[in-house]
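A common beginner's mistake is to predict each chain separately and then try to dock the pieces by hand. The better habit, illustrated here, is to supply every component at once so that their relative placement is modeled jointly.
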Amino acid sequence: MRASRNGSIWQHVDWITIGLFLALVFFGWMNIYGASYTFDQTSIVDFSNRAGKQFAWIMGSLVLGGVLLLIDYKTYDVLAYIAYGAMLLLLLVTPFLAHDIKGSMSWISLGPVSLQPAEFAKCIVALAVAKYMGRYEYKLRGWRDLIIPFALIGVPALIIMVLQKETGSALVFAAFLLVFYRQGMSGYVLWTGVAAVALFIISIRWGEVVLPLGSGNAGMLTCMLLLTAVEIFFVCKEHKMRWQLLILIGSVIVIYGISLIINIWVTVPFNWIAVGVVIALMLYTIFVSVYWRKYQLLLVAAFCFFCIGYTQACDFVFTRVLQPHQRIRIEVLLGMKEDPAGAGYNVNQARIAIGSGRFFGKGYLNGTQTKLQFVPEQDTDFIFCTVGEEWGFLGSIGVLLVYLWFILRLIGIAERQRSTFTQIYAYAVASIFLFHLTINVGMVLGLLPVIGIPLPFFSYGGSSLWGFTLLLFILLRLDAARMEQLR
Amino acid sequence: MINDQFYKRRYVISGIAVVVVLVYIIRLFYLQVIDQSTAGQADNNALVKQTIFPSRGLIYDRNGELLVFNQPIYEITLTMREMGKDWDTTAFCQCLQISRAEFDERIEEIKDRRKNRGYSRWTPQIFMSQLKKEDIATLQESMFLFPGIHIQKRTLRDYTYNAAAHVLGSVGEVNQNDLDRDPYYARGDYSGRDGLERTYEKELRGEKGVEVLMRDSRGRMQGSYQDGALDRTAKAGTDLHTTLDIRLQMLAEELLAGKIGSAVAIEPKTGEILALASNPAWNPKVLVGKERSKNYNILLQDKTKPLLNRATQATYSPGSTFKTIQSLVCLEQGAITPNTLYPCSGPGSTPIKCTHHHGSPVALDRAIEQSCNPYFWCAFRDLLQMDGYGKDNEDFRRRYELWRDAVMSFGLGQRFTDSDLNEQSAGSIPSTRLFDKFYGKTGWKAITIRSLSIGQGEILVTPLQLANQAATIANEGYYITPHLNKNDSMLEHIHKLDIKKQHFDAVKEGMHRVMIYGTGRHFAIDSLHMAGKTGTVQNPHGRDHAIFIGFAPVDDPQIAVAVVVENAGFGATWACPIATMMIEQYLTGEVKRKDLRKRIGESVLNESVKKW
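With all components supplied together, the output reads:
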């Protein structure tokens, strides 16, 4: 029985995922060769260049994957907490052992190679979260049940962000929100996240635009108008009465109309009028929730209250809390500043590289932008430029579609699990890959600010490749054992 | 899973993944298919187009003597953007043996957009130009130390002889006008500015080549792009074989030394210009390279106007040389016959006195020989009054028009528009309109314009036109547009005159007699059978201009000459000897009259004429 089970691991393992993995790794490797290609280059497996080194890492990752598949699947469950503890220790120690590499304290040198423990942390946190939330007695009923999972991802994220100064790697843990969502966390949390980003962008982007009438700025006013709309929407949704909606919208319009008329004689601070409207509606919402006993409306009121403070704080966060280089990246992204030689250089050169690839690309090893090193970090975080330049629109969407297939496949795997542990872990894996893809490609395409995280399997680097291999092959091993779960 | 109330959320999460990828595909479509700007930007980043300059065509004389050739020079360009932070300025200055201060000053100049309108950090800017091979030797060995530095090879003109400056012209940097007109040129290119260099610019310049190189982000060259598929080799310019005889040209310039004047020699049968000398002139070597603008300014300021090509641009009244044409027109239009006699009372004649003493009455040949003013006045008068004056002076004015057309058919009073000579003046033969305006339609008669009869007054011609006139008489009724490019295609530019061949016999006989018995007799060489006509042109601004036209041998003319020496006095004294020596040189290959050559060549008539 046991022998047959061991023998059958190769039958139960998901070969399609392995195939996608191999395709991505191989194509990534080709592009690393393209990105680091120079004219006196001899061979693709020359170990003195990056393509050669990556080849070694790939071979290592295949061995690692094989080993992971051969380990008993229960091991991962059993070792999850121990590994988590060990990982926290390693993350804490890392800054003291690390050399400063471009301001980051996350690299440990082991002889000829450097490793980044943060890359392996994702996998271990995923296991720990899966183990905690996969317990039989665990049930996600309210926010109290999320305290421990949030702590599990928050602690390593904080260590990585504060001590190791790797903002990008820390942000990856936000991917776990999707996992919690799948397990029953309220969808409003995601919406709140979206709202927070939107309000932040609006108040920063238009914060300096002075209104043509009265006093105040366009950013703040827009935020407040949005909040007004949110409040009216939720109150009327609960009331289910049309005339309420009309009265509320009517009174808001009347208030703004009167302000406009007053503005003829006195300069009206429209910002504060808008805040006043939001607060008045908030009080009305509280009144309604108590009167009709719809206490969930209190959350809406709380949300608006929080948002008023938040929009006031955005400017403070932006100018004081963010580092200057982060600030300028955001300003460049939002089109508030042009800086093609400085902060915008990477993004601009990336745009040129991708754009100049046109529909069919310049052909493998023919990309001038990448071959002549106009795009910094072109073989690591900006590797997608090489794809865009040398393989064109066709190649780029090809890669994106393979990724999409890969991620949807992982979600499919997650959904076929009988074990909650494996399902949660599988969602963690899928979410982490999705997060990396979104942030990395979004950055290269100039849609998101520059956040230095790798494109899985494509970016040069042993730690990230092995980290993703670990993540993926543990899942494949757990998945291969899904039939044994109920026995 | 059983009782999974959140089962549908898998679609939300999958949907997020699909939307993200979809948004990115739309963005890629915008960047890679719609937005066209980036392809050019990538090429700007990576490709450097290095121009390869062709060598300019050489210029030869009619006997294959090399007149103009090229010498290599080098210029150093630098691209600011490619100069890294650790660029060793001190070492660079040492290589070029310039001081740090000079270097800084030059960099300031390059960056100053008022002085250097095309400045850009991204493109090569000229740092130093016109350097000799030895100047750049040290730098060339250590080029790799200085990213952004290029050495560009160009050529400068050089000249075998200090002669023919006006004809050859010069080469200089192109101006904004050229850049706008011809996309071939780039800032800093050279082109022919005047003379033959300008006329035959398109042939001489050849075709620039280009080498497309790749440059990496730090400005290091990484070899040729696509294995040189886009490269183009430079095509050398076509050599130009001119009609000039450099020995004759140099003799003419030697004889004109110290005087203001010009000499033109034409081969009558072909219209080929054998010599075209104008003095004062300059050494063509001084309008080359670094010294060009300085020397050009000196020439421009010079009161003797050396930049003016007097042979083609100065206009003079033809004086007595015009009597040859007067005779031909009067014969052709029937005012006189070779046997018509007119009386001459010598200096007592009216309305025009004669400057010579000779028998009376005279026939045409003697009249030409003795340059008899009254004869030509009478002939001109009779021609114009042939039909009387008519109503409103109309018959007279029509006669004048006919006379004017006949005179202009010799090429006088107009530019040779089909010639390859760039700088030409038209001169003028006054029209009836001019006199109408001046005197009113009925206000002028033959007597009013009497000075035209002897080539004075409002008639203005260039020395080139005079030489062409001599060639036309030598050819007995046709000329080929005077030109400088020795190829047979110009032979088609033939201009036939409406004058019967026999009329030329009398005139040629007269001109031959001038050289035997008349004003030219002192300088003629009998064995060469010269024909000629002297002229002494009254000049309101000073001494008379000396003019001579002639050709030889009379029976089979090989050369036609016109010489003008300003403010020299009698044509017979100054212009005639220069012309006869030129004929002697051309027909016999040498000037035997060494003393005459020395005396004329060394006489200084104008102290301010400078020798370069």
